[in-house]
Amino acid sequence: MSAVPAEPAAAPFVVAALYQFRALPDPEGLRERLLALGQAEGLCGTLIVAHEGLNGTVAGSRTGIDRLRAALHAEGFDRLEDKESWATEQPFKRFKVRLKTEIVTMGVPVEPTSQAGQYVAAQDWNALITAPDVVVIDTRNRYEVKAGTFEGAVNPEIDSFREFPAWLDAHADELSGKRVAMFCTGGIRCEKSTSLLRARGYQDVFHLQGGILKYLEDVPETQSRWQGECFVFDGRVTVGHGLREGGAAMCHSCGWPLTPEERDHLQYEEGVSCQHCHAQTTAAQKAAFRDRQRLYDAQAR
């Protein structure tokens, strides 16, 4: 479990991103217990439970998050990959515990508990990714990469993690004879992507332990090879070095993270469109989006 850094006084909501691959004989029963605990503690966010383990991001009070961790430890989750950051406002609207077939969906069976690549600690990542024989691959979706990525990383240009196996098949020759270093937001997608590479015969496969979030937490900005901000799946949209809340806002039409400059673009209209999706929606759709935004603004007053 990651060490917990000091909590900023101005950010009362603790945001915990956590996962562990572990065989669960009764995911349905675990779902009911976690749902009851989260509701009792006023948590918000989503936990995903499957036969292969648990994954999710939740936010709440210091006490609520600590009680969730204690409950998970009592359930046998003793090797949680667990990272904390903070938010000035609750970044989620409700609390959900979902049952799924995979805790992160790739669609290809792999064995992450026994076959994942070698972990690389955040403080050792720079030395690995600057080596001439290393190919660095960003396993995230294209809209996440748009917000920021590591210098020199390959962007597979995928819209879903399900597309990664096909991308690997199409680019296998480019990886032949290379060491492969992979990264994602918190580490979970790399557990599966590196397992897939090893299952297909690649030997020198590495991934960033704790993901980008751990790197931004531990590596000083003056030494960082990260460019931009890191997309997160909550109301903050992005975070930067030190896991400070970033400056991006999401286009609620297409989901892209937008910089302040992009929000100044003539085609940006809050809740309706941005330069990336303006041409992809009809006038009728834009009118419906405006109605939705007016309703949201009225509720927020």
Describe the protein's architecture and organization:
The protein starts with 12 loop residues before the first strand and ends with a helix. The protein has 301 residues and is of the alpha/beta class. Strands 4-1-3-2-5 form a 5-stranded mixed beta sheet, covered by helices on one side. Helix 1 packs antiparallel against helix 2. The longest helix has 18 residues, at 283-300. It contains 11 helices and 15 strands. It has helices at 27-41, 62-74, 112-115, 122-129, 142-147, 164-170, 172-175, 188-199, 211-218, 260-263, 283-300, and strands at 13-21, 44-50, 53-60, 81-87, 95-99, 118-120, 134-138, 148-150, 179-183, 205-208, 226-228, 230-231, 238-239, 249-250, 257-258. It has 3 domains: 13-99, Alpha-Beta Plaits (2-Layer Sandwich); 118-228, 3-Layer(aba) Sandwich (Oxidized Rhodanese, domain 1); 250-300, no CATH class. A hairpin with a 6-residue loop joins strand 14 (249-250) and strand 15. The radius of gyration is 20 Å and the shape is globular.
| CATH fold group of the largest domain | Oxidized Rhodanese, domain 1
CATH superfamily of the largest domain: Rhodanese-like domain
Strand order in the sheet with the most strands = 4-1-3-2-5
Q: Which geometry do the CA atoms define?
A: globular
Number of helices: 11
Protein name: tRNA uridine(34) hydroxylase
Function: Catalyzes oxygen-dependent 5-hydroxyuridine (ho5U) modification at position 34 in tRNAs.
Keywords: Oxidoreductase, Transferase, tRNA processing
EC number: 1.14.-.-
